[in-house]
Amino acid sequence: MTGSRETIRVPNVELLRVTYELETLMFPSNRKMIKSLSLEASGNDRFPVIDVTRCTSSGELQFRNPTLEELKFVYAFMRAISLVHPLLQADKEGGPNWTKLISFGPFIETVDIQWPPEMARGHELVAVTISHPPGQAYEEKISSTASSTPTKYAEPPDEVTFMDIRVNSNSSSRHCAMCEKEVNGDQSLCCGRCRAVVYCTSLCQKQHWKESHKSMCGLYKAMMEREEELVMKIFMFPCSAAQPCKWLESLGIHQKGMWRRKCSCYSHCPFGLLPVKGGLWDSWGGLDDEEYPGDLPFHNQLRDGISSPILLSGWSEYYNLRSLPLSSPVADILSHPLTVYHILTALSINTKNLLLKGKEVILHYLGPEGEMDWMPAFSEISHLLNGLGNIQIIMVGPEVPTNLSGTTSGISSRVRVNLVRGVYQEEATYLPSPHVIVALNCALDRYSSWGGALDLIKAIGVPAFFTEQSEILCANAKQVLRGAGLHITHPVTPNPFRSPVKNHDSSTNLPSYSNGFVLGVNA
């Protein structure tokens, strides 16, 4: 309601606003609205109130309640902005030096928002697009990946000059993306534009360009440009595992403890049945005592004098709380349990509230494999709960050994893990209803069995979260999810608890990390 100078009011301009008021000042209708919109309180006694205000020509202020359409706009915006704001990137060079305001780089993201029952009128979902700067037009390139995030890139001209770029690779061999021929890493070539795709000869490169790569090159190039921001530079151990056995040997943990699932040397042993020698020291492969988390609670972690779950922002904070040296590689295995904990306490509002109230959360964990040999790492979740709430993790998948199916692992007093062998859509009827469903490194586009599981997820209407190792897998996953009638409610974002160790695909150089990206859906 003001002009360029904030002290000058502009008459007859309405302002839609959200303010925070004491509960004693609120009308009953506002209380109901806050509950239905799932709006978060500020502290213990401040609650959001939505109204419309205007300044009259005489300088007086007038207030009114919002219309239903205005309320729907505010609701959709507030739910969407809470999902996408982590994607904003600060532009340190973008603003004048004299202002304290933060400038952000250009940004656009679309998410699906589900209306609460009070607002639903036949259309339960609305697509909300948030862009920055406001009013700026974006040219969207539609690719075969059907990614919801418009990626800006320059499409190569029809007449292409191919460049033979030698791949700097530590791996002994790669595979040509066109003919799948094995080629020595030092002899392989990659696309000179995106530098993402590996070939054996320029002939295969040109053929692949004509057949499929031309439409994807720009997208791959954009993904390669984000490699720098995905690298976790805080760690002091080698974070590239082109040859897993050699990487493990360099750390002195090859064929030891839980690390046996990080290479193929024990692939003959069924998941969940690795021989276990002794205690926690042996499980962590003989690392020094100060290099792995002990089976001990976190100290001095009280909020307002009350014990409550520890909310973590990323690896740096976790390592600091556990007093772990940044030379310790345990993040590579802890990525699985801490990603689960991150989903429960940061991405899923319902499970976060249940845990904060000291209640139990039931989680269906789909497609477990090596995780079944990492129960000592999953016990860390119980310490992060910090004395409040309980979690029942039910791991369901065809890789669960027959002799372990139906067993319960009480890894702590607050976390227990049940193992169930079978396909989720066939076993779910016999399981307690979940609050949330999780599948890590799931490769949704590679297994046909996901179809029935996704149909069931849609039918029961429970929030589900998935992680994928690379952005291209996420783009493919979104196609699969939308094809199943599910709606993306948490956009693809880098997972703060992804493994810092880069994976190496034999035919591409795309950034790939275990649990690298997370996305969420609802029916």
From TrEMBL:
Keyword Oxidoreductase belongs to the record: no
Coiled coil: none
Bilayer-spanning residue ranges: none
Top-level lineage group: Eukaryota
Cross-referenced Gene3D superfamilies: 6.10.140.2220
UniProt keyword Zinc-finger present: yes
PROSITE patterns, alphabetized: ZF_MYND_2
GO molecular function terms noted in the UniProt entry: zinc ion binding
Domain MYND-type: 176-217
Keywords assigned: Metal-binding, Zinc, Zinc-finger
Listed name of the protein: MYND-type domain-containing protein
Species whose genome carries this gene: Gossypium aridum
